[in-house]
Amino acid sequence: MSGSRDDYTVLVAEDDQASRTATRLFLQRFGYRVGEAQDGPGTLREASLGHYDLVVLDLGLPGLDGEEVLARLRRDSALPVIVLTGRAEETERVRLLDLGADDYIVKPCSLAELEARIRAVMRRGQVAPSSNRIEHAGLVIDRTAHRVELDGAVVDLTPKEFDLLSFLASAPDQVFTREELLEHVWGSTQEWQDPATVTEHVRRLRLKMEVDPASPRWLHTVRGVGYRFADLGSQAPAEAEASTGGSPD
User: Fold this and answer.
1) CA–CA separation, 124 vs 107, rounded Å?
2) How far apart are alpha carbons 85 and 179 in whole angstroms?
3) For the chain, what is the total number of helices (H) and then of strands (E)?
4) Which of 101, 185, 212, 218 is deepest in the core (most CB within 10 A)?
5) How many domains does one find in the chain?
């Protein structure tokens, strides 16, 4: 995958032919190669060909709904997926990201916004990790296998939880704001996505990884700034946030 739009092939999965055609023509104006699918099974068939760099996935597909398509794509590949949804609730957005969506857009949306989201996801995919394996005192993050072990036990993480943890762990003791994490991990900005998404994912990571989420060993809050990764062992950090996962002050 390179930085030119001419090198990107996007699969537009949308059951409405007029919307699908309009999206294809708009993206082609920017130099993208575009394929189309009109139902769930067709989306999986097209994606399995290995021709695509990203999928724009409408959740209301016939034959197999978009959520099941997303789940199957995530089971078989790391192909980036931008989900189109008609629901704007924060709980819905967080749920879609947890299912493995790389980004989401609430319909109706402008095609210009969609193209900008595609560029953002592609930029994030171009950043090569500094190492495929990160180890910190009993914690092993294997980016190649997409696997996390803590004291020999596998930690079951969603794709976005894994991305957030591996990003923070790759720069221990460095503090990142929620806005910076939205940019680097989600390929988004606070204009498009609520920074509370980051807070919720940190909270869920703590529940899965920390013996005491209120006094975290690994994932720490720097009040008024953001989050950092550090191994403080059994020492309870003074800046740890409450287990409810409140945002940085």
Assistant:
1) 23
2) 23
3) 8, 11
4) 101
5) 2
CATH number at residue 204: 1.10.10.10
How far is the C-alpha of 230 from the C-alpha of 236, rounded, in Å?
12
Close Cβ partners of 29 (under 8 Å, ≥ 6 residues apart): none
Enter the tokens of residue 249. 């002050």
**Domain range enclosing 111:** 5-126
Q: Which residues make beta-bridge pairs with 154?
A: 149
Picking from 152, 133, 155, the residue whose alpha carbon sits closest to that of residue 143 is 133
| Euclidean distance between CA atoms 162 and 146, whole angstroms | 7
**DSSP annotation string for 24-66:** HHHHHHTT-EEEEESSHHHHHHHHHTT--SEEEEES--SSS-H
Statement to judge: residues 122 and 139 lie in one domain = no
User: pLDDT tens-digit profile of 29-43?
Assistant: 999 999 999 999 999
Enter the pTM of the model.
0.57
Please identify, among 126, 148, 178, the residue that sits at the C-terminal boundary of a domain: 126
Buried b (16+ CB within 10 A) or exposed e, 52-73: bbbbbbbbebeeeebbebbebb
